[in-house]
Amino acid sequence: MTSLDDLEPEERREMEEDQDADKHILDEDEDVDMTDQQGDIEVCEVSNSQLTSSENSHLPSAAQNLTFHSIFIPMVMHWVGNNSYPWTIPNEKLSDVLKDIFMAVCKQPGAFRNDYGCNLTFNLVCQRISEWRGNFGSTAITILMAFFASTDEYKTKEACKEYAKYQLEDSRFVYEDPDNEDSPGAFLLEFILRIFAVQLNATQGCQIIDSLNFGLPAYPTALALTTAAMSFALLL
What we know:
- By secondary structure, this protein is mainly α.
- Helices cover 51% and strands 3% of the residues.
- A hairpin with a 5-residue loop joins strand 1 and strand 2.
- The radius of gyration is 31 Å and the shape is flat.
- The N and C termini lie far apart (76 Å).
- About 14% of the residues have low confidence.
């Protein structure tokens, strides 16, 4: 078999030019053909819309007005804090509740089904709920650090550890007077009240609507998150 080295310079140049002619340079706008091992050809195209992140402007018009943020979201937070789903709310349950609240507040039906995870309004509400949960933890840490910084007897790490250990024993941090067996004052300790204020701030603007039956405001989820936040803050 003849190689390029065996050819005369002119013949070698002609053969190299023929090989280069088989190579194809793609234009900027040309699709790239991706061929798999079986020889099937697939064209991979990515549109600009797929690369654009979701923004508030992509939401339905009813979800962009003042009523949505000042009344609808606080009412959702009221329901979330008063239900029995502290960590995970089933999508179907949340969709139904959002639909009922939206109809009561905005006086029009809302689409909150999220079967494929692409409902922007539903995802926005989920984001607000996630931020609400996170605020309990950050508030607990801020309050505890401020308490240690403002109290001379807790200037050392050892003193802070002893205080945390004492409060965690039998969940003393939950009670205003844990040594009072008759009336310990559950959820009345100043730390707990300040953390629970996260719920009160999130529900500012909430309205009582007769068609929505949320039950008595016992706030089991909000109190559970308040207690968990303080407990983990003491463990840090």
